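hiii, so i know i said id send this last week but things got crazy w the move. better late than never?? heres the sequnce for the chain we talked about at the cafe, plus the structure i predicted for it. fair warning i was half asleep when i ran it
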Amino acid sequence: MGVEGLVREIGVNPGAAGYMAGDDKKAPVKAEETTVPASSQSEVDAFLAELKATPAEDPGAGRGRLVFAMDATMSRQPTWDHALQIQGEMFSETARIGGLDVQLVYFRGFRECLASKWVSDANELARLMTQVDCRGGHTQIGKVLKHVRKEAAKQKVNAVVYVGDCMEENVDTLCDLAGKVALQGTPMFMFHEGNEPVAAAAFREIARLTGGAYCPFDMGSAKQLRELLSAVAVYAAGGRRALLEHGRGQGARALLEQLD
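okay and structure toks below
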């Protein structure tokens, strides 16, 4: 079954009862892409340092829950396949330790914002994610934040990973929603592809408000991105103990140092 049929069956669709409704005023359309410099080691180190501000306690006896949200609009098409491969490897790492339920959320096209069911098989979610393609449209980060609030109200969400390149919404509205997410104890880890300055400022503020972290990247920093994504996912699944047992890669080691 293709991703369209699967999402219609388990997710939310425009006009359906579970659809993440609500439109914010949009800012001007995306600027032309510019050449993106590779993320420096100092930026990665700074990102890991910010992780020190996240809750130190382990998720506990229950399973960790992580929302993985991504921008699937057309501006990400040039690097889409490579990014999906890296993100899929992130979930392969968590499959080794178990204990993590993940929900995929993505937006694209005209008011299309979809969410999967919570999935305990990380490999199955990675397979689903690789079937998503890009479609032209504006960002819908506000809908993602509203959805996270709704899910966290039902049951604790240990972390949110967001991957995107632009922001075309009212930043004050997004920050207000991010503040409400923070009150529910859910840190947001904002992975920024490229160097678009409006998005960078918004993503940094969302990360700051929620007690998460911000990290810029491009496909030249694929190894660093893979390690960082894996470290965040493993931490959401099992906290310090899981990271200690995971122990592979610079991302995990650096994160452990920051949490000590």
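btw Confidence is low (pLDDT under 50) at residues 1-39, 55-61. thought thatd interest u
miss u guys!!
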